[in-house]
TrEMBL record:
Protein name, UniProt field: Monovalent cation/H(+) antiporter subunit G
Keyword Transmembrane helix: yes
One matching Pfam family: PhaG_MnhG_YufB
Keyword Hydrolase: no
Species name: Ignisphaera cupida
Segments crossing the lipid bilayer: 6-31, 43-65, 71-90
Keyword terms, alphabetized: Membrane, Transmembrane, Transmembrane helix
Amino acid sequence: MIDMNWVLVIIGETMVIWGAICNLIASIGLLRFPNFYVRLHALTVGTIWGAFVPLIGVGLIAAGSEFLGDYRWFMAGAAFVTATLLLFLAPVGSHAIARAAHKSKAAIVYPKVVDKLEEDREKGEIR
């Protein structure tokens, strides 16, 4: 008979390991990618796959750990709530950083094919 708690712990540990691998890949991308915007993409991938997935894994590990008693549900719930917040706030934050960098011209977009944001700014449609 397979113990469900054991299955939750194994799946959670696998997710934590997968998150560590994704963080390693994102850090390599951060070092190797050519410009700010592509590096920002690597950071966002690292945030989602390197933080969201392990948090879900930690929640599963906590839910499957009987030695924590009733507190395991608090730990699992906190991990799931944190992961959900991270899932929604990480893309918003990276978009705000990219827009601020583009607006202040702190990061040059090179090479670029089309820049609709700059075209709209030149027309006076946005600030």
